[in-house]
Amino acid sequence: MKKRIALVTGGFTGESVVSLKSAAVVERHLDQDKYEVFKIIIEKTKWFHLAPDGQEHPVDLNDFSVSPQGQKITFDGVFNILHGSPGEDGKLAGYFDMLGIPYTTCDAMTSAITMNKGYTKAIIQDIDHLHVAKSIQLFKNSPENHDRVLEELSLPYFVKPNNGGSSIGMSKVKSAEELAEALDKAFAEDSQVLVEEFVSGREFSIGIYSCQGNIIVLPATEIVSSKEFFDFEAKYTAGVTEEITPGRMNEEEIARVNQIAAKVYQKLNCKGAVRMDYFLEHESSKVFFIEINTVPGQTETSLISQQVRAIGKEIKEFYTEIIEEMWT
C-alpha cells in the first residue's frame, strides 16, 4: 500500500514563489509507485489541498487532514518544501511534532536556530578549520547602532536580515554613507539585522543530507556571479550567475570542506537535506561560513539538484532517500 505524503509548500514570505516552483519539481520526481502525493498549500489566510483538478480542499488543522469528496485523509509523513516562515523557521515543525507526524526537514529547535544567522554562527564557530567573519548582531535601527557598526567593523561589509533567505533585504556596503540605507532595507525585512565584514574569496554552496544514518556530503557548487554578490536576482535570474558543479577546489580543499560540512550538519542536529554556503578566502584558502539553508530550493536548476546529478544519482532516488529517512 502506498504511503500518503503531504507535499507542503507556499508560506508567509516573499519566498513563497520559489517554494511553489520547488514543489512543482518535487511533485514530478517523487516515486508515484511508492507514494500517494497531496500538495498542501499554506497561506496566511488559509491552508488547503490543491487537487489535480484545481479544486481546493481545506485542511483540518486539528489533525492536519483533508476530506475531498467527504473522505477523510491523514498523512504518513510530510515532504516540507516551504521556504521561509512557517516551514523553515521551526513553526511548522513544532506543529507536526505535536501531532506526531514525521517530516523531511530539521526539528523545531534546529530550524529556529539556523534561521537566525547570528545564533548559528555562535554555535558552529569552534568547529576545527571553520572560520566566521567578524560581525555585529543588531536588534534596533538606531543612530547608536549605526555608529557602533562604523566604529567596530572595517569596510566593506554585508548588511542582511538576520532571519530570512533568498538574500532578500541584503546589501553590500562599501562606504559609511551607504550604511543608513542598507540598515533601513534590512530592518524593513526583519527586527534583527546582521552586519559582517566582507571576506575576499570565492563563494561555494554544498549540499548535505542523511541517509540510513550516514551523513552524505555532495559535491560543492562554485558561484560565479556577474553581480556584487549572490543576491535574489543572481539566484533566480537566468544568465546572471555561473554555477560550476563540482566547484574548482583541489583535493585538500575538498577533503577539508567535506569534513567541515559534516561537522556543521552534526553539530546543528540537522535532518533531511540542507545547504551550507561558504567562502574560500583568496590566498589563505580558509573556509568562512556564510549561512545554512535547511529548506534549500529544489527547482530543476537548483544547487542541490545539480549536486545530486553530479554524483550520478537520479533526483527520484534522492527524494526517496530523504522521505524514507524520516521514518528511521
Q: What can you see in these coordinates?
A:
By secondary structure, the protein is α+β, with helices and mostly antiparallel strands. It folds into three domains: 3-103, Rossmann fold (3-Layer(aba) Sandwich); 113-132 and 199-325, ATP-grasp fold, B domain (D-amino Acid Aminotransferase, Chain A, domain 1), CATH 3.30.470; 135-197, Dna Ligase, domain 1, CATH 3.30.1490. The protein contains ten helices and 17 strands. It has helices spanning 16-29, 91-99, 108-115, 117-124, 143-152, 179-187, 232-236, 251-267, 303-310, 315-325; strands spanning 3-10, 35-42, 47-50, 56-60, 65-66, 77-80, 130-132, 135-138, 157-161, 171-173, 193-197, 201-211, 214-217, 221-225, 241-244, 274-281, 287-293. The radius of gyration is 20 Å and the shape is globular. One of its GO terms (biological process) is cell wall organization. Pathway: Cell wall biogenesis; peptidoglycan biosynthesis. Its EC number is 6.3.2.4. One of its GO terms (cellular component) is cytoplasm.
Helix and strand element order: EHEEEEEHHHEEHEEHEEEEHEHEEHH
* CA-based gyration radius: 20 Å
Overall helicity: 25-40%
Can you tell me the number of structural domains? 3
Oligomeric state as shown: single chain
Q: Which class do the helix and strand fractions yield? A: alpha+beta
Distance between the termini: 19 Å
